[in-house]
Amino acid sequence: MSVKSFSGFSPILGKEVWVDPSAVLYGEIKLGDDVSIWPMVAARGDVNHIQIGARSNVQDGSVLHVTRKTENPPYGYPLIIGEDVTVGHKAMLHGCTIGNRVLVGMGAIVLDGVVVEDDVMIGAGSLVPPHKRLESGYLYMGSPAKQARPLNEKEKAFLSESADNYVRLKQKYLEEQA
Questions:
Q1: pTM of the predicted model, to two decimals?
Q2: In this predicted model, what pLDDT tens digit does every residue of 82-102 receive, in sequence order?
Q3: Which of 45, 68, 169, 170 could form a cystine bridge with 28, CB 3.0-4.6 A?
Q4: SUPFAM superfamilies, from UniProt (predicted)?
């Protein structure tokens, strides 16, 4: 795997983490336990930090980046991903905060300063513009993303099920690579 130091920071990996050998992680990145990072993911914690919570997964071709610290905002925008999050194929997350039990659909783009509360689905191909807040319990879709409808109970349950499925899958990969 390509886990590399940058500017004195090295990625920190939790227990039972899977990082595909084709993924690239640089700098100040912290992965919680049971996280999985799939093929061709690029994550750069070079000008701010990235944190990914336990049991979350980042799927093939996704890009994770941050915004540097400046006068406005002085803290910049780190990338914070909560627990039990599924980030779909080719998603782009840039300097945003993603809550727990969130599904970021394939090809979605989530920009600086966005806050996604817990228990949210972001539809495939959606664009979430800077500084938007996505309220808990809803599906958001479109470009720009808009609240489409409340999630039903089956969809809410799926958010954790998706994360659980990826924990089981990454465990098979770890076992086969041992």
A1: 0.96
A2: 999 999 999 999 999 999 999
A3: 45
A4: Trimeric LpxA-like enzymes (SSF51161)
- pLDDT over 90 at 36, yes or no: yes
**Do the beta carbons of residue 111 and residue 129 sit within 8 Å?**
yes
Judge contact between 96 and 78, C-beta under 8 A. Answer: no
Please tell me the distance from the alpha carbon of residue 115 to that of residue 129, in angstroms, as a whole number. 11
Hey, what domains does the chain have and what are their CATH numbers? Answer: 2-177 (2.160.10.10)
Q: What percent helix, strand, coil does the chain show, rounded to 5?
A: 15, 40, 45
Q: How far is CA 166 from CA 33, 34, 53, 115, 149, in A?
A: 13, 9, 14, 24, 26
The pair of three-digit structure tokens given for residue 157, joined into one six-digit string: 């349950």
3-state secondary structure of 56: coil
CB within 8 Å of 87: residues ≥ 6 apart: 56, 57, 58, 59, 62, 81, 93, 98, 104
Can you tell me whether residue 165 is helix, strand or coil? helix
Contacts of 64 (CB under 8 A, 6+ apart): 41, 42, 43, 44, 50, 58, 79, 93, 94
pLDDT at 1: 59
Distance CA 167, CA 134 (A): 26
Note the residue count of the chain. Answer: 178
Calpha distance 171→63 (Å, rounded):
23
